[in-house]
Amino acid sequence: MDLAARYAEAETAISRKKLLAFAVPGLILLYFIYIFFAFDVPGLIDRARPENAQILLRDTWSYKTHVTRDNRNGELSYAVEGERKGAYPEDERPDWVSGSGETTMIDLGRGRVATFLPGNAVELVIPGERTIEARLDGRRVATNLSEPYPDYVSVSNSRLQVTLPGARLTFTRSRSETFRYFTGWELFFFTLDSPYHGHGLGSILFGAQIDPERGNIAGAWHDFWQNPMWMHSAVAWAMFETVLMAFLGTFGAAIISLPIAFMAAKNFAPFAAVRFAFRRVFDFLRGVDGLIWTIVLSRAFGPGPLTGSLAILLTDTGSFGKMFSEALENVDKKQIEGVASTGAARLHRYRFGVIPQVAPVLLSQVLYYLESNTRSATIIGAITGGGIGLLLTQAMITQKDWEEVTYYIVLVVLMVMLMDGLSGWLRRRLIKGE
Amino acid sequence: MADISQHGPKGLDATRAHYLALVQKRRLYGGITLAIFGLLLVSGFMLADERNAGGFWNGLPHMFDFPTDVVADTLPRLHLLPEHLLTYLPALLETINIAAVSTLLGAVAAMVFSLLSTRGLARWPRAIPLFRRMMDIMRAVPEIVIALMLIFVLGGGPVPAMIAIAFHTAGALGKLFSEVAENADLKPVEGLSSVGATWTQRMWLGVIPQVAPNWLSYGLLRFEINIRASAILGFVGAGGIGYELKNAMSWGQGKFDEAAAIFILLFLTIVLFDQLSSMARHKLAGPGAH
Q1: Contact criterion met (CB below 8 Å) for A349 and A336
Q2: Do residues B203 and B90 both lie within one domain?
Q3: Which of A386, B18, B110, B289 is 20 to 30 A away from residue B278, measured at CA?
Q4: Considering the domain boundaries, does residue B240 fall inside one?
Q5: What is the model's pLDDT at position B5?
Q6: pLDDT at B223
Q7: What is the pLDDT of residues A332-343, one digit of tens each?
Q8: Which of B58, B89, B106 is the last residue of a domain?
């Protein structure tokens, strides 16, 4: 080839590369523009509710304590998150609530004080602002406010609501309610009705007996483990169920697909038709996908960890079958011949000639899937109803227990990272023999 | 063999005995490990069976009930099937789009993360552990968590799913990309730095061309995984074909013909992209590559 032709060839090659360097990013950009409109991103920005993000963020690291008066009978109640499970015992109340008889003063922090007055009236003092008063006038809510209202107040005939940073006052026909935010996850260890609430670890382990009927450690463990607010034992069970689903699904699939993979490998399957059939079975199992298997199986077996395990098992039998048969096609014939030369039967040839060759590859794939299936088990659990995925979606659907959602997320992330570490450690131990 | 051991030097006997003892011990340990593993598996299945609403043996005969229902609902209305397939095509397109965009976005983020966390290439070598931990966390967060949180803030639709999958993809691909980049030849990088190239130029011109085929191949594999993920996320409210499937399922028995259309679409799509990406990957990285 002469020099001119070479130059020309180089020129075209370079110009083709130049074109490619601009065409590919250009096409991707065009695709993003199409997606921008196809996914209706402008409409999404309109519909987004940033206040929800605020609630979510605040609730992850704080809790609120409600003080409620029933306007019909004047009964007062104090409860963390306004839930029965977080209620204060009969004769106790938070130390930022004072007053006696029919007057109750509630310190809302930053100098703001709400007062429940006799005769179904409330008063809210905000430093530097006009004091808000409201009372029940027959069936109407009457206030001393007049239009225009400040933006933190919403008033109607049946309801007054004052939303302040870190606190809120709501006054309706049936009740007067305030709540105040505090930092932390309250009642994580003990609920208020447990005698161990407010005791440190030291005083439980080494201090005097707190509950006369029970030993300190046993009693405290029981109250912590059965904590009705955070349900530690249920959460632990759910985590275990999720790991169980991943474990059973992954290893069950590995055990089932190993012998079948022989039938789909070119060098082991006796007939091309058999090989073809088994490959299509694997393709089918994989193609149906975890989602559809989950739906089909949950109709037969009902919700629970078994359904999730079987869904993972079926999908992964397809994946493993394909991967294993590919690995089997790449084995070295010489080792099998060597074993055969000693007069070994077929089973022995496979056991000593094939398995030692492919075991590291297969094991590393299986362990990799174990970690990835822990994550899948979370999602499948959310659909079939089992494991931590179910708890997570339930807590999210109620849209108020975001601190529990945060807790579950932290647990899930830790669980997946732990499984990742475990599978990596096993891979190094078993395969490299470190 | 027997002859040698009878007449040979004494040391051989001892060696053989020692060897056999070792083999026996190894077999014993292997056997015990296998037995424990088998026991774990069996007891695990029994436990899962016990905690399941319906038992395994009760459910097994009903395994094909649902598929039978679906087929029974579809057959009398077979003429409507093409119409249903067409109806759900846009939803399917949305699912594929979610997967494609999130793979692209995740891959771009993964490129940056992986280069920043590869020894010898990192812009700030001291920050390598930081970027690695970040990728570990991104990889560990299941997509459903981010998707549900974003649905709460942004409302339902494809965008929460897209962001959730992209986030996870960035972590998952980042790790794989970094493993590839670790094996890249450093000579082009050194050559570029000798002529005063910036870090970005060194990476773009010295590293990326070397690793591109492998990265592309991993990206394709991820795209295939992400199609499944975006279908399943739709089922929990994030748009696309999964959402339509959930609706079609809720219409109950007697009206499963639309669900059948969705099953067919989903199955065909997954198989198609599975085959396409596996073909492309063989071309890119040669046979036997991941």
Answers
A1: yes
A2: yes
A3: B110
A4: yes
A5: 47
A6: 93
A7: 888 888 888 988
A8: B58
What CA–CA distances, in Å, run from A42 to A54, A361, B63, B97, B150? 21, 48, 45, 17, 16
A17 touching B (Cβ < 8 Å): no
> Which residues, other chains included, contact B171 with Cβ-Cβ below 8 Å and sequence gap of 6+?
B110, B113, B134, B135, B136, B137, B138, B139, B140, B141
**Is the predicted pLDDT of residue A67 greater than 80, yes or no?**
yes
Phi, psi angle pair for A167, to nearest 5°: -160, 165
User: Could you give the CA distance from residue B279 to residue B266 in angstroms, rounded to a whole number?
Assistant: 20
Q: Are residues B94 and B36 in the same domain?
A: no
pLDDT for position A1 = 62
At residue A248, the pLDDT reads 93
Helices B257-285 and B89-116: angle between axes, nearest 10 degrees = 40
Q: Chain B closest CA to A53's CA: distance in Å?
A: 6
Domain span holding position B43 = 2-58
Q: Which two tokens stand for residue A27?
A: 């096409």
Q: How far apart are CA B53 and CA A138, in angstroms?
A: 53
B235 and A383 within 8 Å at the Cβ level: the answer is yes
Is it true that domain A232-432 has CATH number 1.25.10.10? Answer: no
Q: Do B125 and B253 fall into the same domain?
A: yes
The single-letter code of the amino acid at A131 is: T
Tell me the per-residue pLDDT of A74-100, one tens digit each, with 9 for 90 and over: 788 888 777 777 777 777 777 788 877
B89 at interface of A, judged by CB pairs closer than 8 A: no
Residues 6+ apart with CB under 8 A from B11: none
Nearest to A301 among B56, B249, B271 (CB): B56
pLDDT of residue B288 exceeding 50: no
Supply A211's token pair: 């509950």
Residues of A in contact with B224 (CB under 8 A): none
* Run of H or E residues at A69: strand A62-70
A79 to chain B nearest CA, in Å? Answer: 26
Q: How many domains does chain B have?
A: 2
Report the largest interatomic distance among the alpha carbons of chain B, rounded to a whole angstrom.
Answer: 87
Chain A residues lying within 8 Å of B47, measured CB to CB: 244, 305
B198 and B257 both lie in a single domain: yes
Both tokens of B226, joined, read: 């992400």
Domain residue ranges of chain A, discontinuous segments joined by +: 62-183, 232-432
Residue B70 counted as domain residue: no
Contacts of A383 in chain B (CB under 8 A): 232, 235-236
More confident residue, A381 or A399: A381
Contact A192, A80 (CB under 8 A): yes
pLDDT band for B129, please (50, 70, 90 cuts).
very high
Q: Are residues B174 and B123 in the same domain?
A: yes
**Cα gap A393→A405, rounded to integer Å:** 9
- B67 belongs to a structural domain: no
* Mean per-residue pLDDT of chain A: 83
CA-to-CA distance for A140 and A103, rounded, in angstroms? 21
**Percent of the residues in chain A that have a pLDDT greater than 90, as a whole number:** 12
CA-nearest of B143, B153, B148, B134 to B102 is B143
Same domain, B24 and B150: no
Residue-level pLDDT at B9: 62
Residues A235, A411 contacting (CB under 8 angstroms): yes
Give me the interface pTM, i.e. the ipTM.
0.84
- In angstroms and rounded to an integer, the radius of gyration of the C-alpha atoms of chain A is 33
Q: Which residue has the higher pLDDT, B163 or A176?
A: B163
B73 in a structural domain:
no
The pLDDT score that the predictor gives to residue B92 is 92
- In A150-264 the beta strands, taken as DSSP E runs, fall at 153-156, 159-164, 167-172, 175-183
DSSP A84: G
Mean pLDDT of A107-134: 82
Highest mean pLDDT among B49-53, B112-116, B258-262: B112-116
For residues B52 and B130, membership in a common domain is answered with: no
